[in-house]
Amino acid sequence: MPENVHPALPRFDELPVTPGAPPHSAWGLWGPDDQLGTLNLLTPERIAAAARLIQTGKRFALNWSLELPSPPLFGREALQHTIKQRRHLVNDDVYHNFNPQSSSQWDGLTHYGNMTAQRFYNGVTQAQITGGPDTRNGIQVWARKGIAGRGVLLDYQRWAAAQGIAYSPGERHEISVEALQAVAQAQGIQFLPGDILLVRSGWIAWYISLSQPEREALAPPPHTAVGLAQGEATLRFLWDQHFAAVAGDAIAFEAYPAHPQHGFMHETLLALWGMPIGELFDLEALAEDCAADGRYAGLFTSAPLNTLGGVASPPNAMFIK
Ligand code: UVW
């Protein structure tokens, strides 16, 4: 059994904490009306400690271009941006067809419900997601709070290459817990409660290497991609380390499509724990710098869009070393 890294929090095997809540759910842990989920782990003390990691002041913006991938995957809308001249030397932007999940994104707590429980995080029903003033679990709750803490990059792609593990990020390839722990050890990382985990799989670097006809061919489903292995071992790891949020550069964070027996972990992370999932984060420049100086932890900040009832948002994320 893994050491409980935060004695005040239940282990994976102690979930649920609320009688009658779905197995392995954290519903009620931060109160029956909570809408922040694991972002509750981002305490002022942890954020201040993360800020003290800054040594060089180098900053890495993690949003990929809003126009990529092009065409978008999963049948999502392609952003249309026009510059509207209002009068002489005065312009506005107009965005049409803006789907915040077409490029770098946080999946918010109404993106995925748990199909077994038929509920979203903390027992919220589809009917409670109104988009109006009474809406539940909307991204505006995260936006008003802001996201900041210790970011930790695990460069799986670089580690795998050094181990002679060959894979294409565009094909289903599982990243196991053992591999994540080996990467952390190789990089000298010890996880802390409230860390924001960033996993680089090489998906964006691979996508950038494709020709436009290859990108066109990739757009229609079915999709396949590298990501974390589904299953209880991964869920136990993610919960017992008490990550505040997880993100990666691949299309679904977890391997895609889901494992036929183990299901899709979005249903646990988002709906049972309230744990944000980031996808298509551009980790390329950050990974280069971390490999150069051997420092894989820094201050991570993110300011989601303040959209009432928003399902998702570009992360507007920054990593500062
Ligand atoms: C899937 O649901 C497959 O991915 P996303 O989180 O981008 O919707």
Topology:
Blueprint: H1 44-51, E1 59-61, E2 80-87, E3 90-96, E4 105-107, H2 139-145, E5 147-155, H3 156-163, E6 173-175, H4 177-187, E7 196-200, H5 203-208, H6 212-218, E8 226-228, H7 232-240, E9 245-248, H8 266-273, E10 277-279, H9 284-293, E11 297-302, E12 312-313, E13 317-320
Parallel strand pairs: 5-7, 6-8, 7-9, 9-10
Antiparallel strand pairs: 1-13, 2-3, 4-10, 4-12, 5-11, 11-13
The structure holds acetylphosphate.
3D structure, described in words:
With 321 residues, the chain is α/β, with parallel strands linked by helices. 23% of the residues lie in helices and 19% in strands. It is built from 9 helices and 13 strands. Strand 9 (245-248), helix 8 (266-273) and strand 10 (277-279) form a beta-alpha-beta unit. It is globular and about 60 Å long. 43% of the residues are buried. The model has no long low-confidence stretch (mean pLDDT 97). The structure holds acetylphosphate.
Major sheet: arrangement of strands:
1-13-11-5-7-9-10-4-12
The number of helical runs is 9
Proportion of helical residues = 10-25%
Distance from N terminus to C terminus (CA atoms, Å) equals: 33 Å
Give the overall average pLDDT. 97
Gross morphology is globular
Residue runs with pLDDT of under 50 for 5 or more positions: none
| Hetero groups | acetylphosphate
Output the radius of gyration: 19 Å
State the secondary-structure class.
Answer: alpha/beta
Summarize the main sheet. Answer: 9 strands, mixed
The topology string of helices and strands comes to: HEEEEHEHEHEHHEHEHEHEEE
- What is the strand tally? 13
Strand content: 15-25%
